[in-house]
Each structure stands twice: as C-alpha cells, then as structure tokens.
Amino acid sequence: MKQNMRADSVLFIRSLCKSFGGIKATDDVSLSVCRGGIHAVIGPNGAGKTTLIAQLSGQIRPDSGDIEFDGRSILRAGMAQRARAGLARSFQITSVFREMTILENAMLAVQGAQGHSYRFWAPVHQDQDLADIAMDHLMTVGLHHRSGRIVSSISHGEQRQLEVAMALAMQPKMLLLDEPMAGMGKEETFRMIEILSSVGAEKTILMVEHDMDAVFSLADQLSVMVNGRVIATDSVAKIRSNPEVQKSYLGGSCAKD
Q1: What is the pTM assigned to this prediction?
Q2: How far apart are CA 225 and CA 55, in angstroms?
Q3: SS in 3 state form for 38-91?
Q4: Which of 123, 153, 147 is nearest to 134 (CA)?
Q5: Can you state the percent helix, strand and coil of the chain, rounding each to 5?
Q6: Which end of the chain has fewer CB atoms within 10 angstroms, the N or the C?
Q7: Rounded distance, CA 134 to CA 114, Å?
C-alpha cells in the first residue's frame, strides 16, 4: 500500500523534523500528496503548518528527514532550484510590487519563469509576448479586465488573486499556498474558492488554511497537524468524523482560528 501511495505522489515527505530551541515545530512529519487536486493542511495556531510549508519551499532547512518532489529528493535544493523544478509558493503576507500595475507584476513573474534576469523595466514593459502570457494568467484569476490598475489601489483580495496568477506564471507542477484566504472578506473568500477550485482541476495544490468553510469546499484530502505532528490524513468526510481530530481541533476552541 505504501508503495502505491508513493508511486502516485507528486510530493512525498518522510520523517521531517525541525526544532527551534526546545520547540519541535515539525515532529516526524510524513505525508504523501497525490498528483492532482487539492490537499489541505489544517490545525490550531502553532501546530507547525507554516514551518512545514517553509521547509517544502526551501525557505527553512529541516533538521532531519527527506522531501521528494516529482520522484526526486529536493532536500538539498534551494528555493530557486525548487521553483525551477515546478514547486511554486505563495505567502501568508502578500508579496507583490505595489507601485507597479497588475500586468507589470504578472509580466515580471513570466519573465522569471522563462529564466531571464530582470532587465531594465522599459524594454520588458514593451515585450508583447510577455504581456500576452501574463494576460492569460490574469484571466485565470479574473484580473485581466483590471490589468492596468496600480497594485496599491486594488483590494487585499485582488492582491491575493494576483499572487496566484504570479505563481501560475512559474508554470508549476504544484502550488504551495499559505493561508490564501487570510484577511479576506466573505465575497473575496468566495471568489478565491472559485479560483482555486478551477486551478485545482489542472494543478496539484497543497494548502494551509484556517477558514474551515473554504477547506471543506475545496479539499480532496485533509491532513491535521497538532503540536508539530500529523495526527490524521483522510478524506474531508472521514476527517470531520474522526474522534481524535474532533477532540484535538475541530471540536475545540481552535476550530474558528
């Protein structure tokens, strides 16, 4: 059974450990993410979810364990190497160029994906091929009609949509999304759910998220982390009825965090 799970996995994590002083942020985490669809990681604040994502992206190096992506260990690969291998990440806090337009941000992401160094902006801005590709990704997230707007003038939710478009511009095999709904209102959350549902039909997504309505709407598989450990991985229906999960997370005060 383990061999089949691993064969179908785009991401395979084995015994991942990371400590900060006496705190075990990830404690012997093993996880298999199947190719295609959306796998969500949930858990209370301090469970180790963001630390896990940071280790997968290469931002933080684990103390021990291994990470295989698309059949190869990426444990020693840096963030740029992992991105080139097809692993793209978005962050809890928006990371866009606020004084540029939506289109300019997307064009820079496309340029980076094509392996070019960032040239002087004027010739890049005039590159119609870059603009056409960027517009395709903006259309995916519903921002094509606002492509000329300066990013600082658009809503928080639209900035998060732009981040998804920029991640897609990297032509990833898999997206790592850290709290994609963070700071959003009801309408913005609903729009992001629609976008990620569409993207998840084409790409593999590993998502950390606190909004349980969004998680239950989107996820094909759920993993629950508590105190640095994965205590359960299963379908949404089975996770919701799991007594240990109910006791540790869903039934407690952290369920709305």
Answers
A1: 0.86
A2: 15
A3: EEEEECCCCCCHHHHHHHHHCCCCCCEEEEEECCEECCCCCHHHHHHHCEEEEC
A4: 147
A5: 45, 25, 30
A6: N
A7: 12
> What is the C-alpha to C-alpha distance for residues 110 and 165, in angstroms, rounded to an integer?
10
Report the C-alpha gap between 224 and 47 in whole angstroms.
Answer: 9
Structural domains in the chain?
A: 1-86+174-257 (3.40.50.300), 96-171 (no CATH)
DSSP string, 136-147: HHHHHTT-GGGT
Taking alpha carbons only, the member of 12, 2, 6, 17 closest to residue 69 is 12
CB 198 within 8 A of CB 31: no
Euclidean distance between CA atoms 7 and 3, whole angstroms: 6
pLDDT in tens, the chain (257 residues): 343 445 578 999 999 999 999 899 999 999 999 998 999 999 988 899 999 999 999 999 999 999 999 999 999 999 989 988 999 887 544 578 889 999 999 998 888 777 655 554 545 556 788 899 999 999 999 999 999 999 999 999 999 999 999 999 888 999 999 999 988 999 999 999 999 999 999 899 999 998 999 999 999 999 999 999 999 999 999 998 888 887 776 654 443 33
- Picking from 211, 161, 156, the residue whose alpha carbon sits closest to that of residue 184 is 156
The one-letter code for the residue type at 135 is: M
Torsions phi, psi for 216 (to 5 deg) = -70, -25
